# Entry
Amino acid sequence: MTPADQRKAARRGYLAVNIIFAGVILLIMGYSVFYSPDEEKYPVPCVHEKLTGEQCPSCGMSHAFSLIVRGRIDEAMVWNRASAGVFLFFAFQFLMRIVLGIRVLYTDRFIRPISIVDSAVSLLMAIAAFFPFLKALGQSLF
# Structure
């Protein structure tokens, strides 16, 4: 395989991953828009709460996301304090998928450095956004 063919293959792979991630994020956001926080008819119940009777660190996240997309941030924070950080993570990830996808779509140069920086930034953002959940998990294990 020539270097040009390798770059094209890397480009296709990177674009495919970006499209998949963007699609998953759109589904999450669409779920939040579709279900009203005032009706509480969410189809995905908290399995942990159903099994143990106790709330888990992510309880109220769907409700909070539905409130955030409607601009009701203060109410969302009551449902789940970590919701704003997680929501921002998904919003920034969606924007990154679009911007980097467009960048890679127009050229197959620098795909390796772009994917390395993308992965590092995404990992740091995920750790920051999901830190409350990681902390709770650590506390429950130790």
Q: What stands out?
A: The chain has six helices and no strands. The helical segments are 3-34, 47-52, 61-68, 73-79, 83-106, 111-141. Residues 3-34 form the longest helix (32 residues). The chain has one domain: 3-141.
